[in-house]
Amino acid sequence: MRVTLKDIARAAGVSIMTVSNVINGKHARVSTDTVERVRRIVAELGYVPNGSARSLAANSSRLVGLLVPAASEASLAISPHNIAIVGHIERRLRKSGYHLLLRGVSDTDEIGEALRSWSLDGAVLLGFLDEEVDRLDRRVTGATPVLAIDSYSDNPLTTGVRTDDFTGAHLATSHLLSLGHRRIVFAAPSFTEVGVVHERFLGFRAALRDAGASPENCPIETVDTTHDDGVELGRRLLTSHPEATAVFATADILAIGIIEGMRDTGVPVPQRVSVVGFDDLDISAYITPTLTTVAQDIVGKATHAVDRLLDLARGGGHHTAPLVLDVRLVVRNSTASPRPTAAGH
C-alpha cells in the first residue's frame, strides 16, 4: 500500500501541513527536532512523493520532449551523432530534476499534438529540416518553449544551439590542401540552400578558394549519411573519380563507411586516398586507420540546449539568437600527403 502524508503525520505526531513543509524543504516554521523526526519516519516508511500531484501543484509536468523525425510506418532512425546528443540531454535533464520524453513525429502537426498531449514544459527538436522548423507557428507550439538543435531557421518561435559548420568544413578542407591534395571529393547527403550540410559545403568551397584550388577538380557525391552508403561510395570512388586523392565526408559514419569500401577494393587509406570526417564520434579513434575529423562539442551542445530551454520554461529568459559552438580539427592516421605517383600528380 502506498505511504501517504497522512501516514507520516500520524507516526510523527504532527499535522499533514508540517510533513508537506518538511518534504518540500520549507523549514522556516518547523523546529529542527521535528524536521529530523519527519525525515526519519519518511525514510523508515519508504515514502515516495507522488510525481503527478507535485507537478499539478507546481503547474509543471517536469517533462521535456525530445522530438525527432519519424515516418509513420517506420522505427526511429537516429544518426550516431544524434544518439550521443540524446544521451547527454537525458543526463542533463535528470540532473535538473526533469524527465525526458523521446517521441518520433512525422509532421509539424504531430509536434503540436505531442506538446499538448503530454503537457510538456518544453521541447527540443533534433534532426528536423530547416523548412520544417520554419513551418512552426503559434497554433502548433502554443506557449511551450521550443529549441531546435543544428537548425539555421529564423523562426522567432524557436531558439537554437548549433555547431560552427562553416568553420569546421574549412578546417577539414584546409588540412587536406596543406598536405598537397587538390582533387578532393565532397561527400554528403543531398542539401538545399540552407542548413547544416550547405554550410559545410560553403566552408569546403571557401577553403578551396582561399588556397587557389579549382572547384572543378573537387566533385560532389551526394549519398545518404549511413555506413552502408559510405561503403558503396568507397567501393566505386576511384572508378567514378580516378584522379581523386582525398575525400571530405560531412559525417564520421559516412567517412568510416568510405574507408571500409575502399579497403574492400584494395585502395589503401591514407596512402592512396586520404579521408576526413565530421563529428569526432568515439568510434573514430578506434577504427583502422584512426579517422581525422572535425570535433563537435556534443556535450556542450546538449548542455546548452537543456539549460536554454529550461530557462525559457521557468520564465527566466526569452528567445534569442542561436548559440554557435566552436569546433576543432583532430588529426589522426587517415590523412597524409598524396604520393607523387598518384593519379593527377
Structure report:
- It contains 13 helices and 12 strands.
- Helix 1 packs across helix 3 (32-45).
- Mean pLDDT is 90; it is low at 54-58.
- A 6-stranded parallel beta sheet has the order 2-1-3-4-5-11, sandwiched between helices.
- It has helices spanning 5-12, 16-23, 32-45, 51-58, 80-95, 108-117, 130-134, 138-141, 165-178, 196-211, 227-240, 252-264, 298-313, and strands spanning 63-69, 99-105, 122-126, 146-149, 158-163, 184-188, 220-222, 246-249, 274-279, 292-295, 323-325, 328-330.
- The longest helix has 16 residues, at 80-95.
- It is elongated.
Question: How would you sum up this structure in a few lines?
Answer:
With 345 residues, the protein is α/β, with parallel strands linked by helices. The protein has helices spanning 5-12, 16-23, 32-45, 51-58, 80-95, 108-117, 130-134, 138-141, 165-178, 196-211, 227-240, 252-264, 298-313; strands at residues 63-69, 99-105, 122-126, 146-149, 158-163, 184-188, 220-222, 246-249, 274-279, 292-295, 323-325, 328-330.
